[in-house]
Design brief:
By secondary structure, the protein is mostly helical. It has one domain. A two-stranded antiparallel sheet has the order 1-2. It contains 14 helices and 2 strands, in the order ααββαααααααααααα.
């Protein structure tokens, strides 16, 4: 009976129940793993030591990514059997590789070169075996389809960029996790609209895995960090979601998002990419040092300097990103280059709004002080 039921069962016929079950499994598994993770981290002193550049003053466990990984593995290896198993098998292999690389970095420190090689290998598995890559720029600057070698190279660059962008923004409580959850929710919506049930399942599972972690990441008594393990996993999943969404839209000219897919992806990833570009320019051009050296010049550090708490900084940035995604979604009917220009202008204004307001207020206060 069960065999017959599974043979004819189609998740698309029960999509709401299917995705609810996906979320519930990921959430429960993630939630149940953290007590054990805390015990191991404290017993073995697997803690982050506060340093000169740290925004925290206490030793904190750094194994938050372990709970995220375990919950995703459980989802993929159970209900994933009813989906596209080839994609899920490759995703699982890539996640496992990144998990062990991140875990070693969190515990013993891993060289940037080895991490880069691991990220390229993880991305290459999906590019080579299921040919999921960015085919071109969908007409932005007149570029549609590019040669195969350039497509593969650019796709690898996108994977490495997004993975490391999420690693770089993991500087205040909840920021990387909340942006990853918001990004996963946006991709889940898009994949549901395009009937990609496998990717919908992955993105919903990511949200379910992140919520228990975020509760602890915001906690003051039982705080835990995502670590490189977590940031590389969520960065990889968002990079894969981006490439998969772009690939699906670009293959079919009748796709719902054929003329807007790149802009939607850029909107979802806007803050991590903006902050990465900004920090690299500051380090290379102004400070003349390695772009990978740590400092407190990130946008989220500027919010803290303005007096925002960690939670306020995270909420403000995530709300701005959601507003930008909603804005871009509603201009998807426009010509793609115009969409791109509006994204850059509106996105830059949104993320500069608080600093512009603070500058105007300060200037006004100085002007009034001078008069008196």
């Amino acid at each position: 009976m069960i065999k017959e039921l599974l043979k004819y069962f189609k998740p698309t016929d029960y999509l709401e129940i299917w995705l609810s079950l996906t979320f519930l499994i990921a959430f429960v598994v993630s939630l149940s793993t953290y007590p054990a993770i805390f015990k191991v981290a404290i017993a073995k002193r697997l803690m982050d030591q506060p340093g000169d550049r740290s925004v925290h003053s206490k030793m904190t466990p750094t194994l938050g990514g372990v709970g995220i990984f375990i919950s995703l593995v459980v989802v993929i290896t159970t209900i994933g059997a009813l989906l596209d198993t080839k994609i899920l098998l490759l995703v699982l292999g890539s996640l496992t590789l990144l998990f062990f690389l991140g875990l070693k970095d969190d515990l013993l420190i891993l060289s940037p070169r080895k991490k880069l090689i691991g990220q390229i290998v993880a991305a290459s598995l999906l590019i080579i075996f299921i040919d999921t890559r960015i085919l071109g720029l969908s007409g932005i600057f007149g570029i549609t389809i590019v040669p195969y070698w350039l497509s593969v190279t650019f796709t690898l660059f996108v994977y490495v960029l997004v993975i490391n962008a999420y690693n770089l923004i993991d500087g205040v409580d909840g920021l990387a996790g909340c942006l990853a959850a918001a990004g996963s929710a946006a991709f889940a919506f898009l994949f549901i609209k395009t009937n990609d049930i496998t990717m919908s399942t992955i993105t919903v599972a990511t949200i379910g895995a992140l919520i228990p972690f975020l509760r602890l990441n915001f906690s003051k008594r039982r705080k835990i960090f995502m670590g490189d393990t977590g940031s590389m996993i969520v960065g990889f999943l968002l990079a894969f979601s981006s490439v998969r969404f772009l690939n699906t839209a670009q293959i079919n000219s009748n796709s719902l998002y054929y003329d807007s897919a790149p802009i939607l992806v850029l909107a979802i990833l806007f803050f991590p990419l903006l902050d990465t570009l900004r920090i690299f320019l500051i380090r290379l051009v102004i400070l003349r040092k390695s772009p990978f050296s740590a400092d407190q010049n990130h946008i989220h550090h500027r919010f803290l300097q303005l007096g925002f708490s960690h939670a306020q900084t995270t909420i403000y940035i995530v709300v701005l990103n959601l507003l930008l995604i909603a804005f871009v979604y509603h201009i998807a009917h426009l010509e793609i280059l115009f969409q791109f220009l509006l994204l850059i202008v509106v996105g830059a204004l949104l993320y500069s709004s608080l600093f512009i307001y603070n500058w105007v207020t300060m200037k006004k206060w100085l002007s009034e002080s001078t008069r008196t």
